[in-house]
Amino acid sequence: MPQPPDDPLGQLPGYALRRAAQAMMAELSQRLAPLDLRISDASVLMLVAARRDMTSSEIGKALDIQRANMVPLLNRLEGAGLIRREPIDRKSQAIVLSDAGLARLEQVRAITTRFEDDLLARIPAQHRPHFVPALQALLD
Amino acid sequence: MPQPPDDPLGQLPGYALRRAAQAMMAELSQRLAPLDLRISDASVLMLVAARRDMTSSEIGKALDIQRANMVPLLNRLEGAGLIRREPIDRKSQAIVLSDAGLARLEQVRAITTRFEDDLLARIPAQHRPHFVPALQALLD
DNA sequence: GCGATATTGCTCTTCCGAATAGCAAAATTT
DNA sequence: AAATTTTGCTATTCGGAAGAGCAATATCGC
Hints:
- The structure is a homodimer.
- By secondary structure, chain A is mostly helical.
- Chain A contains six helices and three strands.
- Chain A has helices at residues 13-32, 39-50, 56-63, 67-79, 99-121, 128-137, and strands spanning 54-55, 83-87, 93-97.
- In chain A, strands 1-3-2 form a three-stranded antiparallel sheet.
- In chain A, helix 1 (13-32) crosses helix 5, helix 2 (39-50) crosses helix 5 (99-121) and helix 3 packs across helix 4 (67-79).
- Chain A is elongated, with a radius of gyration of 18 Å.
- Residues 1-5 of chain A have low confidence and may be disordered.
- At the A-B interface, helix 1, helix 2, helix 3, helix 5 and helix 6 of A face helix 1, helix 2, helix 3, helix 5 and helix 6 of B.
- The structure holds a DNA duplex.
């Protein structure tokens, strides 16, 4: 990621945010590739483990993924045997982790906690505690 | 952008970074839409104004856009009459702003400086000075 | 209870950004 | 002069995200 001194864009918060997110996601994707999971797959696994029996729409709301786009995502996870769809009533279904899903989740956790540590480590100590709060302030 | 208290992901720097960047870009896109420009279009205009006579590949390197993807982008800008391609030698061409491009750039500047101000304003004052430095640390 | 309304899960389609492979012409290196 | 690199491009693919629309079902107001 070159940062030429005469780059007039590098100082702009919006531009820096975009580039940083881009670089971060490229690296996380690579680290998750051995598990055969995309970033959104991993997010879903983590979420359904933390809050059991969520419906597809609830997951979508929490992760800001549209209903329509949840379908292929969950199909993929179900096809890989990581989740199951269990009927709640005749309309809704709960998404639950299978045993294989739980096992995969453990691998995901290992990779992501390592990843998040590495990420934070690259931020100079004096800026570090401000990083997540600043980002969260942008999400209200 | 909901941030439920029992969201196990919201605290993760990587996840927060992704979501913040997503939200930011969605909003910037909207603000640029009246100018009929995408975010990358605007970046290119700003860059070619600051460093004149750059070639397509140089722009790509600076903005981290691949050669192949620069082509339709520049075609679009050229089609809109905002830039011209001027031959340097028989292989390379300089990208230069047209008069219309310069005028459009002024509008871009108005929108982006306003946007960047608004963005920073949403970050609490004690975190604000740490924001861009932290992001830049992730880009090395 | 019933009718209007909202929600759920889905299909199909489109768009954008990004990536890859390949290519011809021209420049640069040695 | 030959080998290598660079430039600009075509063509294709992929992933994430968005939109419109739909049938079945659940929920709310009365």
